[in-house]
Amino acid sequence: LGVDSILKTPEVLRAVNPLHAVGFFLTHQWQGFLALGAVVLAITGAEALYADMGHFGRRPIRLAWFCFVLPALLLNYFGQGALISRDPASVENPFYLLVPSWGLYPMIVLATLATIIASQAVISGAFSITHQAVQLGYLPRLATLHTSERQIGQIYVASINWALFVSVIGLVLGFRSSTNLAAAYGLAITGAMVIDSLLALVVVRRQWHWSWLKAAPVIGLFLIVDFAFFGANLVKIPHGGWFTLIIGSGIFFFMMTWQQGRHVLVNRRLQQRTPPLKSFLAQIEKRPPVRVSGTAVYMTANTSGAPNALLQNIRHNKVVHERIILLTVAIEDIPRVNEEERVTVEPFDGNFYRVLVRYGFVQSPDIPRALRSCEKFGLDVNMAETSIFLGRETLIPSAKAYMSGWREALFIFMFRNAASPIAFFRLPAKRVIELGTQIEI
User: Fold this and answer.
1) Which pLDDT score, from 0 to 100, does residue 55 have?
2) Do residues 44 and 189 lie in contact, with contact meaning Cβ atoms separated by under 8 Å?
3) Which of 24, 30, 39, 21 is closest to 182 using CA atoms?
4) Number of neighbouring beta carbons within 10 Å of residue 252
5) Sign of the CA dihedral 87, 93, 98, 102?
6) How far is CA 341 from CA 246, 300, 353, 356, 367, in A?
7) For 34-65, what is each residue's pLDDT tens digit?
8) Strand, coil or helix: what is 57?
9) pLDDT digits (tens, 9 = 90+) for 352-389
10) How do residues 75-102 score in pLDDT, each as one tens digit?
């Protein structure tokens, strides 16, 4: 359709000359800058293609973009421009007016299917980002269904899916038209573009070790364009952009509340109540408890102290297993950890072992599989003869709080509604024992 329109008005191809853009800004000045807020909507939507990069890799996405999507978009936009040049009244809806009258309804069906495909990419991207936030400790554990045994990135998060559904219905009812929604959408996209460029600056400086002399011109070029689009959309805040800021600030607030509460409050309290591992082992050697056959795995986030579940078991049951594994799962700040580097085993006296299992933030923990890989270190774990002990903390508000009362209540609510670690770590439910304890925060 675009090519057909271009052939009727080929002079539209003069638009590739950047002097037209310069003349537009010189003529319209401030109004020309504000027009960027509408212009940016022409380049949005294509980012949905990149939401699937984690599934398909960079090469297929690049090929799809440069060989198909970008040429198709350019031809269609040039065709729309040619149509408007011939008939200014077609500015009302140039996309559908490119289509012959007999093809209007088939095009509506095609556009609807394209929207469904793009929304699927955004949904899967939301699942992946949420999963990574959970792995990095910025959200509580969520029930995650792995839909593929081969592709680790193919997951389904029911709670996020329902949240997206409710949000979309609410947006449609609240804004009522795509024109009204454009203000919130434009601010969201341009804000994300600015954040992406700033994160790229962090990467080239910290990971690639570029000097400021090299990084500033490259990233600065992107930031100039991004801030121009973002600035042009700031005037839309009263007209719907406020919604984007509220949603973004709310998500950020939830994430920081969880991160602060989990890593500063709970971990600090637990570490205060658990003795160092060396002193605990010395006490065990001095006063050995009754040993029972089998292997016990105690999962703990504290790599220097004795797990609280182990202390509870000795205090109440007066026994320990003949072989004790203190297992810690660490999520690294890299996408993936190779299988060869997944597990490290450190033996201690008294048949105790410290096992550290490392994953990247896009990977999902699989503890039984990790324990089976300990065999190469001389630690053979038979899951049929192994008991897995988990600590179940019950949080109680205290008079001396590190956060305000309502943030503390929010954190306790999130903590209580986090998904079970049994499903999250893929533990065999019949081999799991949970030992509870109360913690004042």
Assistant:
1) 67
2) yes
3) 39
4) 11
5) negative
6) 42, 20, 18, 10, 15
7) 888 888 888 787 777 777 776 677 899 899 99
8) coil
9) 999 999 998 878 889 999 999 999 898 999 888 899 99
10) 999 999 999 999 999 999 999 999 999 9
Cβ-based neighbours of 12, under 8 Å, separated by 6 or more: 6, 78, 81, 82, 85
pLDDT score of 257 more than 80? yes
Q: Quote the CA–CA distance of 398 and 441 in Å, as a whole number.
A: 6
Contact 193, 164 (CB under 8 A): no
Beta bridge partners of 61: none
Average pLDDT in the 302-306 region?
80
Asked whether 274 and 307 are in contact (CB, 8 A), the reply is yes
% of residues, the chain, pLDDT over 70: 94
H helices present in 261-377, as ranges: 267-273, 277-286, 308-317, 367-372
Q: Torsion-angle region of residue 289: left (phi > 0), alpha (psi -120 to 50) or beta?
A: beta
The residue whose two tokens read 């105790």 is 352
Hey, what are 169's tokens? Answer: 């219905």
**Taking the chain, what is the end-to-end CA distance rounded to the nearest angstrom?**
64
Task: Name the phi and psi angles at 327, rounded to 5.
Answer: -110, 130
- CA nearest neighbour of 79 among 2, 138, 136: 2
Side chain identity at residue 90, one-letter code? S
DSSP 419: P
Query: Model-level pTM?
Result: 0.77
Do 360 and 330 form a contact (C-beta atoms < 8 A)? no
Least confident of 70-84, 200-214, 282-296: 282-296
Q: Using CA atoms, how far apart are residues 330 and 318, in angstroms rounded to an integer?
A: 30
Residue 205: per-residue pLDDT: 94
